[in-house]
């Protein structure tokens, strides 16, 4: 399962509306791809459709779609939003990551 913090939920719903998506029926697609300074990097985008290999979760008024391959790397992750002075953006708190880069956008197992 992937969880979404209160702050991340508010930001996602707002961004979805700005981009013409409906948080009540559309999805936040979370994934993992090769790359980044630690070996794997996170992907985050909005999507209106599900694929046949997607797992779907709903937490804090956000529907999350994850391809099964990426889910192996993301199980137990909490998606948070940081708006502090040290940076602004989404943060993946991933218990499976053994090492993350300084920017928090890539990780390794």
TrEMBL record:
Q: Core domain: which residues?
A: 2-105
Query: What SUPFAM superfamilies has UniProt attached to this entry?
Result: HesB-like domain (SSF89360)
What the entry lists under InterPro entries is as follows: ATAP (IPR016092), ATAP_core_dom (IPR000361), Fe-S_cluster_asmbl/transfer (IPR050322), FeS_cluster_insertion_CS (IPR017870), HesB-like_dom_sf (IPR035903)
Database matches in PANTHER family: IRON-SULFUR CLUSTER ASSEMBLY 1 HOMOLOG, MITOCHONDRIAL, IRON-SULFUR CLUSTER ASSEMBLY PROTEIN
Which family does the record claim for this protein?
Answer: Belongs to the HesB/IscA family.
Q: What's the protein here called? A: HesB/IscA family protein
Taxonomic source organism:
Flavobacterium paronense
């Amino acid at each position: 399962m992937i969880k979404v913090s209160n702050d991340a939920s508010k930001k996602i719903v707002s961004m979805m509306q700005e981009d013409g998506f409906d948080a009540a029926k559309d999805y936040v697609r979370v994934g993992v791809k090769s790359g980044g300074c630690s070996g794997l990097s996170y992907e985050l985008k909005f999507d209106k459709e599900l694929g046949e290999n997607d797992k779907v979760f709903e937490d804090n008024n956000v529907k999350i779609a994850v391809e099964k391959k990426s889910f192996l790397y993301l199980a137990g992750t909490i998606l948070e939003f940081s708006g502090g002075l040290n940076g602004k953006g989404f943060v993946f708190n991933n218990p499976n990551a053994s090492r993350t880069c300084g920017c928090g956008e890539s990780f390794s197992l």
